[in-house]
TrEMBL record:
Taxon lineage: Bacteria, Pseudomonadati, Pseudomonadota, Gammaproteobacteria, Pseudomonadales
InterPro entries cross-referenced by the UniProt entry: CAT-like_dom_sf, Condensation_dom
GO molecular function list: catalytic activity
Name of the protein this chain belongs to: Pyoverdine sidechain peptide synthetase II, D-Asp-L-Thr component
SUPFAM superfamilies from the UniProt entry: CoA-dependent acyltransferases
Signal peptide coordinates: none
Highest taxon in the source lineage: Bacteria
Domain Condensation positions: 7-138
Length: 172
């Protein structure tokens, strides 16, 4: 959905809900057809429709056991295998605490950068809870602190070669 920064957080949630319900009503459309119709700018380096994901889960207190004739069914917890998107935040409310799990493409982000997102996201969540009717543009952007120590660019191979030639012209 297109985000209008003049909307409040609550209005944005309504827009996202409506867009999600519309998408679910058409979930039988093949992914390839969707991509063809949307015709996004393509790059093999990333997902064609979105690169960042936020997902909220709520664990139900009363679990209903799945019963299948002749089969024993149990819950299976599995480990996530790498990042499927450039950046993903999954939040799970277990009724007591809200847990967060961030996954990121390590070739795009450094761990320290992603960890820097966490206090900013917590501050944003607090602001959204304190003022859900405030326009989105008033919330401010995430202020991620740049790395404290900036390295100089590594010398190119030919620069190193030239330096060796100048310092040891008679060496092979």
């Amino acid at each position: 959905c297109q985000v209008d920064e003049r909307l409040s957080y609550l209005d944005l949630l309504v827009q996202i809900r409506d867009t999600s319900f519309g998408a679910q009503a058409h979930q039988d459309v093949p992914f390839e057809q969707l991509v063809d119709q949307l015709a996004p700018e393509r790059s093999l380096g990333h997902n064609p429709l979105f690169q960042a994901k936020f997902n909220q889960n709520v664990i139900l207190k009363q679990k209903t056991a799945l019963k299948l004739a002749g089969l024993e069914v149990s819950e299976y917890a599995f480990d996530k295998q790498g990042a499927h998107f450039d950046l993903a935040l999954d939040i799970t409310d277990d009724g007591t605490l809200i847990h967060g799990d961030m996954a990121y493409a390590s070739d795009l982000y450094r761990r320290a950068t992603v960890e820097g997102f966490i206090p900013e996201m917590l501050a944003l969540f607090k602001t959204l809870l304190d003022a859900p009717q405030a326009p989105l543009f008033s919330l401010g952007a995430l202020a991620i602190e740049p790395p404290r120590q900036v390295r100089e660019a590594a010398p190119q191979v030919l620069q190193l070669w030239d330096q060796q030639v100048r310092t040891q012209p008679d060496a092979l």
